[in-house]
Amino acid sequence: MNREHIKIKVKDFNFFYGEEQALKNVAMDIYKNEVIGIIGPSGCGKSTFLRSLNRMNDVIPGVKYEGTVTLDGKNIFAHGIDVVDIRRKVGMVFQKSNPFPKSVFDNVAYGLRINGEKNKDVIAEKVEKSLMGAALWGEVKDRLSASAFDLSGGQQQRLCIARALAVEPEVLLMDEPASALDPTATSKIEELIQELKKNYTIVIVTHNMQQAARISDYTAFFMMGELIEYDVAGKVFTNPSKKITEEYITGRFG
Amino acid sequence: MARIKENMIHGLFFLNGLVVVGVLCGIFAILVFTAAPAFKEISIVEFLATVRWNPTSYYKPSYGILSMIVSSLMVTIGALTIAVPLGIGTAAYLTDVASPRVREVAKPVIEILAGIPSVVLGFLGIVLVGPIIARVFGLPNGLNAINGSVLLAVMALPTIISLSEDALNSVPRSFTEASYAVGATKWQTVVRVKIPAAISGIFASCMLGMGRAVGETMTVLMATGCAPAMPRNFLDPVRTMTASIAIELGEVPYYTTHYYALFGIGLVLFVITFLINMAADAVLNKYQVKVR
Ligand SMILES: Nc1ncnc2c1ncn2[C@@H]1O[C@H](COP(=O)(O)OP(=O)(O)OP(=O)(O)O)[C@@H](O)[C@H]1O
Ligand SMILES: [Mg+2]
Question: A34 near A201, Cβ under 8 Å?
Fold first, then answer.
């Protein structure tokens, strides 16, 4: 594994919703082409952390942050940084699946079109590739022009993954992508993540300990806005250095 | 007990609805009955399809309102051509692009715009818009269809802006975020995701704006030159249906064919507005975006 290259470096990071502090002094190095699993009890700031990595929190009024998040060495909060560019490089799949009220095809093609791709053949080809990448192609290839809302919940979530893949980001943020899915769809997504790891750096939030243990290379445990433990997944799950981590992963609370 | 209360509330609202429908039917009935005698002397074809309107002629009065219908439609279409893109654009800008400071200033300004009495706008049409149009197009005066269109656009704008804004604001934030997440700019997001998702509300806002424009009287009466002839283009003076009724109803002897014919114009206006609304509804139902 390539532990040379730090893709994202979070340093002294604090985040506030108005007066309420949601992240406290978080520091984390995220290596290229690895899967980072983020675990922790509900409300501990997992989504907030994830959404800070592509500045998605900017859309919420009244938020404040301190500290730095660097992507390939560049601070994404620096003055004059192009947020649009950051978000193109750092793709995101949301906790609740959120396809557009458009056709299956147009959902995936959206990112290509807004980024200036005009060639219909190129678009069609990349849409197919992305849908294959999201393990959805077989199920939708005959109804690409159907409304995305006609798909099942699990298919919609994979469609959102395909939409994120289409613009070929470098990092993929996934917020409990499998929380609303059945075991079959979940295992499909897990396989997919292993596959995607070859080309992407993936940060994934999950509530499911087994899942985190299965898929992540590194695991981060958050509690009440603090990063309690961050280490190789094997270590976190078999021999955590903090007692509270052990209590959480063995299910004694949370 | 709760059941009875529930039923009473239900009944109350049903009654309310009934009153509204009743009033509407009543207006329609009055128009029909007052207009009907006119058609003892005028054929419906003459009324709707001929151009000469000269009810006070001693020898041979004529009652064609085609030029008025065309004038009304022209002024309305002109107004919408200006107000719809401007209104939607402004709404998009205010909801998604403008800073909160700009928004805070713009909101009351738009509300004030909505409150300007139509007679004041008509006055502005005469002293401000008219001279500008005359200058630009090299005309003796600027009281014509385009002047009316500009003023009616100003009247329709606040409606279109604020209702479109509401429609855009009710688009779920998850759509916006999904768009940002693939690297879309604010403008791309509002144009390609939010407006399509809010299209039914935006369309309704335009229809309401159109309703205002079709029915507006004082402004067009003052600013469009009021010549009862078939307009050839937007630089011709026009006289709309509403303006004709307003001008003539005050002076017409009661219970004459002329008097009844004016109600006939009112009826036509009513039917046109009704048809526009029906068409709008049909379009809405057809293109209603499916949202969970
Ligand atoms: N838009 C918001 N405005 C104000 N407070 C918020 C907002 N979103 C989240 N919070 C608060 O920030 C804290 C962290 O929330 P966050 O959504 O990051 O938790 P989470 O770990 O993702 O939880 P879950 O596992 O339930 O998704 C919570 O206390 C929450 O109430
Ligand atoms: Mg969350």
Answer: yes
Ligand nearest to the CA of A45: 1
CATH number for the domain harbouring residue A186: 3.40.50.300
Domain that holds residue A37: 32-47+83-249
**A119 belongs to a structural domain:** yes
The Cα diameter of chain A in Å comes to 56
Q: Quote the pLDDT of residue A252.
A: 67
With cut-offs at 50, 70 and 90, classify the pLDDT of residue A207: confident
Is A7 a member of any domain?
Answer: no
SS3 label, residue A244? helix
Choose which residue among A47, A205, A211, A224 to substitute to test ligand 1 binding: the one with the highest number of ligand atoms within 8 A of its C-beta.
A47
CATH superfamily placement of domain B41-291: MetI-like (1.10.3720.10)
- Burial class, A197, CB count within 10 angstroms (exposed 0-12 / middle 13-18 / buried 19+): middle
Specify whether the CB–CB gap between B147 and B125 falls below 8 A. Answer: yes
CA-nearest of A102, A91, A100 to A134 is A91
Whether A2 has a pLDDT exceeding 80, the answer reads: no
What's at A139, amino acid-wise? E
Taking CB atoms and an 8 Å cut-off, how many pairs form between chains A and B? 76
pLDDT at B57: 87
Domain count, chain A: 1
- Whole-angstrom CA distances from B119 to A212, B115, B219, B266 are 70, 11, 6, 21
Q: How far is CA A125 from CA A58, A108, A129, A133, A196, in A?
A: 33, 11, 6, 12, 18
Residue A218 Cα to ligand 2 midpoint, Å, equals: 19
Element (H, E) at B84: helix B66-92
Q: Do B174 and A92 touch (CB under 8 A)?
A: no
